[in-house]
Design brief:
Elements lengths: L1 H31 L2 H14 L9 H13 L18
Helix pairs in contact: 2-3
């Protein structure tokens, strides 16, 4: 019986610890502005059509635009120039 209770407590502790770890990471990203990881996340969401540049936090918009431009995409996630196709 003691072992069963100990296992339950350990499992609960593990769940709480995992949740708090994720929560502290998310709070840290919010407090420091997200860094490069959030720029990539927002750029990906724009390319997928889930977000627009206007929905990106103001302090990250320039970095997201630069990241999209480095991928030859405009701020809407569209190609900057049409892809050339070869005539066969």
């Amino acid at each position: 019986m003691f072992q069963r209770e100990t296992k339950k407590k350990f499992k609960l502790f593990s769940i709480i610890n995992n949740y708090l770890s994720k929560l502290s990471t998310n709070i840290g990203l919010l407090l420091i502005g997200g860094g490069d990881e959030m720029v990539v996340v927002y750029a990906t969401l724009i390319v997928k059509g889930v977000k627009t540049i206007q929905q990106v936090p103001t302090k990250l918009q320039a970095d997201v635009r630069n990241h999209l431009n480095s991928l030859d995409l405009d701020e809407n996630g569209n190609p900057l120039s049409p892809i050339a196709t070869s005539a066969a």
